[in-house]
Amino acid sequence: MSEAQKIAFSVNDGVARIVFDDAAGHNVVGAQFTRELARAAIACEERGDVRAVLLTANGAEFSVGGDLNEFLRERDHLRAHVREMASWFHLAITVLNRLEAPVVCAVNGVAAGGGVSLVMMSDLAIAKRSAKFNLAYTRSGLTPDGGATWFLPRLVGAQRAFDIMATNPTLSAAEACDIGLIARVVDDEAYDEAVEQTLASLLAAPAGAIGAAKKLLRQSLSNSLEQQLELEGASIAAQLGNPLTIAALERFFATRGKSR
């Protein structure tokens, strides 16, 4: 008998939706989950109609992180099991991170361990006010994965990253937003509408603009100012060669003229 899927994947109107679908299991990050996540990420990369990706979950929790019960079941060959699982998980994160399409992470509840890594990987994370965040790895005698040690210091700074990693504080959504771990917090009752409005805003930009800006941000992490300025000049010139950009500029000035 085949296992029930852990992730639901669909694409509609330019939005790829990767939805963690194991509410009964707290959307744990286990072997099957990581395989399905990698396949969904690759599907986003292979399709030509994806302009935004939504990463979210069904149930009361976003993801409580690694499946520690699975680790114990696989104790006779645990190192090989974890290495294989991490390979799928890291493939998914690598592919999602390099997509031209922006990745929006909508955090509906508790995010811990690898769940936090996925939040940090996203381009824009939005959370319910009731959501909680806890990195949790070292509390279980583990070390972070999913790119946590790469993303976290870039988001919150080196010392604060060490504090979060070493002492495992549980952060409210407001606290996570205040330190730069996530971008937005919305009241629980406004969450669904806020997520859809965010996606609509991203889709409203002329094709290629958001992806090009995302690429520039990624490149800035390893470039000098002079290198980055050169890339910015080339990028904005390239966008002005896009007919959709010209059409957007014409609409802007037409609207501005009517408002006077």
Descriptive overview:
A 6-stranded mixed sheet has the order 1-2-3-5-7-10, with helices on both faces. The mean pLDDT is 93. The chain is an alpha/beta fold. A hairpin with a 2-residue loop joins strand 1 and strand 2. The chain is globular and about 65 Å long. It contains 11 helices and 10 strands. The protein has 2 domains: 7-204, 2-enoyl-CoA Hydratase, Chain A, domain 1 (Alpha-Beta Complex); 209-259, no CATH class. The protein has helices at 31-46, 68-73, 78-98, 114-121, 148-156, 158-167, 173-178, 191-204, 209-220, 225-239, 243-259; strands at 7-12, 15-20, 52-57, 61-63, 103-107, 110-112, 124-128, 132-134, 171-172, 184-186.
When the domains are counted, the total is: 2
**Order of SSEs:** EEHEEHHEEHEEHHEHEHHHH
What is the CATH class designation of the largest domain?
A: Alpha Beta
Helix fraction by DSSP (H/I, runs of at least 4): 40-55%
Q: Can you identify the CATH superfamily of the largest domain? A: 2-enoyl-CoA Hydratase, Chain A, domain 1
Name the CATH architecture of the largest domain.
Answer: Alpha-Beta Complex
The CATH topology of the largest domain, please?
A: 2-enoyl-CoA Hydratase, Chain A, domain 1
Low-confidence stretches: none
Mean pLDDT: 93
